[in-house]
Amino acid sequence: MFEFCAEPKLLDGFRWLACYLTTAKHGAFYASFGTVLLLLAIAAPSALLFGFFGALSSRSHILPLRWFGRSYIAMVRGVPDIVFFLFVPIALDQLIELIRHKILCPDVLEPIWQGNDFIVCDIAKLPLGTDPQWIHEIYGFGLAVLGFAIVFGAFAGNVIAGAMRAVPKAQIETGSAYGMTNRQIFWRILLPQLWVYALPGLSNLWMILVKATPLLFLLGVEDIVYWARELGGSKTSAYTYAHPDWRVYYFLGLLVFYLLLTFLSEKIFARLMQRLSYGQATMAGKTAKVLS
Amino acid sequence: MSCWQTISDYGLRSIGIGERLLPKSDITLCEQIVLIGSGMIWNVYFGVFALALGFVFATLLALGKASHNKVANLPARAFVFLFRGSPLLIQFFCAYELFVLLPKVGIALDLGFVELNAETRWLTRAWLGALIVLFCNTSAYAAEIFYGALQSVPVGEVEAANAYGMRGRKRFLRIIWPTMLRLSWPAYTNEAIFMFHATSLVYFSGFPAWRQSGDALYYASYFADKTFNPFIPYPIVAAYFIALTFIVILLFGVVNRYLNRHLPKDKRQSMKLKINLMR
Amino acid sequence: MKKLLITAVMTAVMAGPALADTIRMGTEGAYPPYNFIDDNGEVAGFERDLGDELCKRAGLDCVWVTNDWDSIIPNLVSGNYDTIIAGMSITAERDEVIDFTQDYIPPSPSFYAALSGASVDMNGGVIAAQTGTIHADHIAASGATLLEFATPDETIAAVRNGEADAVLADGEFLAPIVAESNGEMEIAGQIALGGGVGMGVRESDGALKDKMNKAIASMKSDGSLNKLIIQYFGDDAGTY
């Protein structure tokens, strides 16, 4: 990075540290903070979407759909999220390749499971074996995002289903008294108010999601935990920058990062809540009116 | 080997009783279920002790947070912020790395009836080190729940207690605390469920496994590693946790009914309504 | 299948850089000097140099991927990469699940490393090892107390901070660590484990195994493998 970094073994003190902290490996570490934020940015809205459909189907009039919705949003109450993370992405990966195998190479008759090997034809592999590494990484990241979205979608489903129940029944009855159809009631009465009732739960969920991001490294994504462990471990002179076990500093750094992230989120949600409850028939709504 | 034999060999393997060597080849479903179940002993241990000890500490923290005294208020706030604001996994990593830095000394603890020689090296073992982290973690979350409930204790009840001449500790223990507990119970139930789930993180926490005795996930990943099939051991873990969750809901439901017993039927709070409160 | 066969024959005939197959080489990246991530964030070490040379000789195009040790075999089997080249000892247990090429490092002793001056009971003390290694299996089977860690680095840290009496690992991994510890650590004993280090491939991947076997044999016969071993593991290392 700096020109005095050409001979790292001769450096000491501040210059050594400056060079050490600007290696390409540290660059990957810093970039992985972006990976975490990107995961949050994609996983949060997708989880919301999954949760929304989960909550809707749990209220469906169609029995199988209702059962599906209810068991989906109930699953997170029974099983820890990591247990899902340990096998859902592998299962998804194999499922996708299995489907592609059936479609793309119908004439391959050999069994897909040969002993322990899971073998699909070459063109059914996803990503293809010939694809460059970055496609593999994006695919792995995508699977991780999908895993997060499924698990946290179930959480969101709980919150949204609760919020749907919290919208006053009298308003819905008034709606049908005015001759609104079910669809109109949903779009005009239920949905606009839903967010106010769901927001405390959803902000809570965001916090849980933020605090679940260190689990990314379990999914094989090279995230901040992966790099902190890799960089912090003691290094012999096989490496350019030898140092003893420094993991504790890296982990404390991560701790500070997460504290900042949750602190900022809390502030933003408090603002948002104040704005959204304006004019609503809730306690917060009344005080908001008085204050303004 | 029959399944009964497996149960007697491996049923208590996670606490060091039974066969020393784990099954290596020709692993049966029975062996997986028994050993993972034996690992659940640790998950239950972590959950029960962290919750029981955390319950007391959380009450103190909630009082500290509600207090106007800065000496009580600030540390309580800082503690809750630290442990609620960061991921449990990172807390585990930091705690382990800090614990191993401690000098290895023995401290004689005189408990009156028995003299215990506590060693700081116990802190680097999961049974104590991970338990401390889980304890701090659940204390912070429960403190926040209790603090919220404390804020919504009806003023009327406190005024009535004042009118009867109750003060201080008596007023707190007889009036405020039971109401606080009743109001917070559904949310606290939820915290308890989360706590039991969080014990599954101990396996990834950096605390090493001793003598191949570990929690449910330790054995599950052992089997996933030996059989190269993750689709059997992990669902077994999931099934155990579902059962554990049901037991927690059942037990906490009994307490909830007890806390609400003095109220008229229509005013009792049901656990179901507030079940979507989360940590 | 016919189509596949034809392409296989064609690549065999016209094997050259232009038509090279892409082979994904899976390694751990945390086991210097075998394999590690250097300060540029690239896979480096003995196996990097060896693997690149083998790929060149076999006319394959190689990409390097890292994967945690504990899931390194499952991910090979499910096709996330095509080879394991991660200092993996050839054992009968692993051979049931995957195939190994011939060894590219001859069987060499594993070392116990401990703090200098400490007397270690190899069969009764607390010995650290990485989960899922032949070393962990050996300790579990001996009378010693096994202390398991997910990464090799943590096992060393455990000895340094007094958690474990000793660590058991490949000699080539421990030797430089002990040498650079300024007398803090010493080799407390050694033991012969495993049948040499080989490259792991899927059992269904016979063609790749043959190619790699041929490349390893050619490196053994012209002495370039010995040169590489001495370059990374020192003059005392076992050669062919």
Features:
heterotrimer; B: 279 residues; mainly alpha; MetI-like fold; two-stranded antiparallel ribbon; 9 helices; globular; C: D-Maltodextrin-Binding Protein, domain 2; D-Maltodextrin-Binding Protein, domain 2; 2 domains; five-stranded mixed beta sheet
H/E element sequence of chain A: HHHHEEHHHHHH
Overall pLDDT metric of chain A: 85
Major β-sheet strand ordering of chain C: 5-1-6-13-7
User: Which term fits the overall shape of chain A?
Assistant: flat
The spatial strand order of the largest sheet of chain A comes to 1-2
What's the multimeric state? heterotrimer
**Structural class designation of chain C:** alpha/beta
**Number of strand elements of chain C:** 13
- Tell me the domain tally of chain C: 2
**Poorly predicted spans of chain A:** 288-292
Q: Globular, elongated, flat, extended or rod-shaped: what is the shape of chain C?
A: globular
CATH class of the largest domain in chain C: Alpha Beta
Largest sheet of chain C: 5 strands, mixed
* Number of self-contained structural domains of chain A: 1
Describe this structure in words.
The complex is a heterotrimer of chains A (292), B (279) and C (240). With 292 residues, chain A is an all-alpha fold. Chain A is built from 10 helices and 2 strands. Chain A has a two-stranded antiparallel sheet with strand order 1-2. The mean pLDDT of chain B is 88. The radius of gyration of chain B is 22 Å and the shape is globular. Chain B has 9 helices and 3 strands. Chain C has 2 domains: 2-105 and 196-233, D-Maltodextrin-Binding Protein, domain 2, CATH 3.40.190; 109-192, Periplasmic binding protein-like II (D-Maltodextrin-Binding Protein, domain 2), CATH 3.40.190. Chain C contains 9 helices and 13 strands. Chain C has helices at 2-13, 46-58, 72-77, 92-95, 134-141, 152-160, 171-179, 206-221, 224-233; strands at 21-27, 30-31, 35-37, 43-44, 60-66, 83-84, 99-100, 109-115, 126-130, 145-149, 166-170, 185-192, 200-201. Chain C is globular and about 50 Å long. Classes of the chains: A mainly alpha (292), B mainly alpha (279), C alpha/beta (240). Chains in contact: A-B, A-C, B-C. Strand 3 (209-210) of chain B pairs antiparallel with strand 10 (145-149) of chain C.
